[in-house]
């Protein structure tokens, strides 16, 4: 009996302790639930007030059964000046622009103070109509500065170059002002990107160029170039050589034409500017009349090493690239495999000659194969005129390969039939 009572005494505190913990837990659960319910009630109240405020602000357009978040966004409108109907950042009206006709719609009644500016009644929607937008575009078009009218057809002419000349005795300086070009041919729908290159002949030491004027056939430059160290007795021997080009970002600049102005036919007075206008002449006519010249090339094919040796010996009868009757030629070579360029070489520049002698040898590694041949290989040669200022101009080109024509194809077959042997031949340059 004593043992059983002792066990009862020990179990009573454990039972009381479990009841105390259970009560505290339920108190915490009830309190947390009350807090969550209060937060949800507060959020619902705030959302209801917010929705009613937006509905009142929109003037009752949106019904209570429509969702707020799925409404289409409002169209952006121009910023208006407070208290007036004009827009910010508006250009000043041009005196030469056409005046838009007055509107014939009757005047609208004065809108209340809480209605937006622009003459809308309280019952009309506040979203902008297409009419104000088109009116804004019409105002912008009316205030734009009118562009000069450019000629569409030139009747085969290349236009005119306007420039000025002035000589200063005190500084021994010749000042050349490139003013503008008029009536350039429109070789692109939006017009060319012309600029002018100038050099003094026959020395070709002073070379300058103007900036590029985008998309126009009547560019205006108004740029002055001063050449120092020119004595008065040297003026008669100087010739101004202008070249008008069209800039091309992705390929070589296109030559529109040139103007040659010898100073021996002009009377320059110290400090006085002389305005001149010269017609732009085509530059390609000289090469069409006299041809593009010839080049002597020697080839040697080594099948065991899969190596092609090219010896560029010389060239003759190249066209005159300036009024002095000279050129600065050099040759650039490309090795093509299956129509793709895989290697390139170039010679040195030969100054002031139309019959350059190169005598330079180049070795090209042909992609190795079980049976290396020249069936899928070709050689492209470009003869160029070197220029210090602008991109070098191509005089002529030559392509040697199995798919060539004429002497180029015959020469290539001879090299294939006689490996390890140097075979040379003359080839005419093509455009």
Automatic annotation (TrEMBL):
The keyword NADP does not apply. Residues 157-276, 291-427 form the C2 domain. One of its GO terms (molecular function) is SNARE binding. GO terms for biological process: calcium ion-regulated exocytosis of neurotransmitter; vesicle fusion. Residues 55-133, 138-157 are annotated as: Disordered. Residues 98-110 have a biased composition (Pro residues). This is C2 domain-containing protein.
């Amino acid at each position: 009996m004593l043992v059983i009572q002792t066990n009862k005494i020990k179990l009573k505190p454990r039972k009381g302790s479990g009841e105390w913990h259970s009560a505290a837990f339920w108190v915490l659960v009830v309190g947390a639930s009350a807090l969550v319910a209060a937060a949800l009630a507060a959020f619902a109240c705030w959302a209801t007030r917010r929705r009613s405020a937006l509905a009142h602000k929109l003037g009752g357009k949106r019904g209570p059964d429509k969702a707020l978040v799925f409404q289409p966004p409002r169209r952006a409108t121009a910023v208006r000046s407070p208290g007036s109907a004009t827009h910010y950042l508006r250009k000043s009206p041009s005196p030469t622009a056409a005046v838009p006709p007055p509107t014939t719609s009757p005047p609208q009644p004065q809108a209340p103070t809480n209605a937006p500016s622009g003459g809308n009644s309280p019952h009309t929607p506040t979203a902008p109509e297409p009419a104000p937008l088109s009116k804004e575009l019409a105002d912008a078009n009316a205030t734009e500065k009118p562009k000069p009218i450019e000629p569409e057809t030139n009747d085969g002419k290349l236009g005119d170059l306007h420039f000025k000349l002035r000589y200063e005795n005190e500084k021994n300086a010749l000042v050349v002002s490139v003013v503008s070009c008029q009536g350039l041919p429109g070789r692109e729908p939006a017009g060319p990107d012309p600029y002018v290159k100038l050099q003094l002949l026959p020395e070709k030491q002073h070379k300058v160029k103007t900036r590029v004027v985008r998309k126009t056939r009547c560019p205006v430059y108004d740029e002055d170039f001063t050449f120092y160290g020119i004595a008065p007795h040297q003026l008669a021997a100087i010739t101004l050589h202008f070249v008008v080009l069209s800039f091309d970002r992705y390929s070589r600049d296109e030559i529109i034409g040139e103007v040659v102005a010898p100073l021996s036919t002009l009377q320059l007075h110290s400090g006085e500017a002389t305005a001149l206008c010269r017609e732009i002449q085509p530059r390609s006519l000289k090469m069409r009349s006299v041809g593009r010249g010839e080049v002597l090339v020697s080839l040697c094919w080594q099948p065991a090493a899969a190596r092609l040796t090219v010896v560029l010996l010389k060239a003759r009868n190249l066209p005159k690239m300036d009024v002095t009757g000279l050129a600065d030629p050099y040759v650039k070579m490309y090795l093509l495999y299956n129509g793709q360029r895989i290697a390139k070489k170039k010679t040195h520049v030969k100054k002031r000659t139309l019959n350059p002698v190169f005598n330079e040898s180049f070795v090209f590694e042909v992609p190795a194969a079980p049976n290396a041949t020249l069936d899928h290989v070709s050689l492209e040669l470009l003869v160029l005129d070197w220029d210090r200022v602008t991109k070098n101009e191509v005089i002529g080109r030559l392509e040697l390969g199995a798919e060539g024509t004429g002497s180029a194809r015959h020469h290539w077959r001879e090299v294939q039939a006689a490996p390890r042997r140097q075979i040379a031949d003359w080839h005419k340059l093509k455009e």
